Amino acid sequence: MRLASASIHRGEEPPVTGSGGSGVIFVSGCNLRCAFCQNAQISQGGMGRSVDTAEFSAICLALQERGAENINIVTGSHVVSAIAEGIRRARRDSLAIPCLWNSSAYETVETLELLDGVADMFLPDLKTLDIDIAANFFNAPDYPFYAEKAILKMMEMARDKNKVIIRHLVLPGLLQSTKEVLRWFAGNASGRASLSLMTQYTPVLSRSVNRGKNAPDRFLNKLEYMTALAWLDEFGIEDGFYQELETGDEWLPDFSRPNPFSSGLSVPVWHWKRGFM
Fold first, then answer.
1. Is the pLDDT of residue 161 over 90?
2. Residue 169: per-residue pLDDT
3. Burial classification of residue 139, based on how many CB atoms lie within 10 Å of its CB (0-12 exposed, 13-18 middle, 19 or more buried)
4. Residue 103 belongs to a domain with what CATH number?
5. CA angle 75, 210, 36 (to 5 degrees)
6. pLDDT band at residue 211, thresholds of 50, 70 and 90?
7. 243: left (phi > 0), else alpha (psi -120 to 50), else beta?
8. In whole angstroms, what is the distance from residue 47 CA to residue 26 CA?
9. Which domain holds residue 175?
10. Overall domain count for the chain
């Protein structure tokens, strides 16, 4: 597997961040090609370096020693076998904190079964249920088919609503997609998972190899934001979180730096150029 960075991160949902921060490990590569990927340097640009199981274990233990509440694997679906092996090695080496599987949900049920006994909590995206949006913006027309099945499998594996947080990013000008996702959540996941409604869409189309036809080139506006929040009430969704509406790109990561994020958001522990810090 190729990794880009590992840090104590304080920008996740409250149960994930906790008091000590989340031990986030950013995996290089991805099985999607999102037109507005904020991590395109590593997901599509190849930034990062290969590590073996022993080094992966050492990274996990370093995060634990620095006070991380959990090990948070970001976008590892394409190297799931290696990660599962690495987590098992880390646990043999004294890793005692939970492992979170933080993914796009573009993965098969068989893939998720490789995480049985490895992942303690799931943080899947549900990007869209619209085939055209999935094809155009994520380069995966079958995304809705696989994501729906994957999230149902995650809820089955977790058996606890506090161990699954389903994330959805609201796309400017495409609110009907959000409405359908919220309707699906209300019918399939209420009482089985929490919802995280994200409004941080940032027009960074130049970062991606997939520009996406008619991809949104602006931030979410206040009317769209208030409309999405009103749908939470309409569908009776009470368990979860939503972001405040803010515009700007100051928080965007730069994985060429030892600390890809601002010092207030992240404390670096390992970087693909520098190693341990």
1. no
2. 98
3. middle
4. 3.20.20.70
5. 60
6. confident
7. beta
8. 11
9. 2-266
10. 1
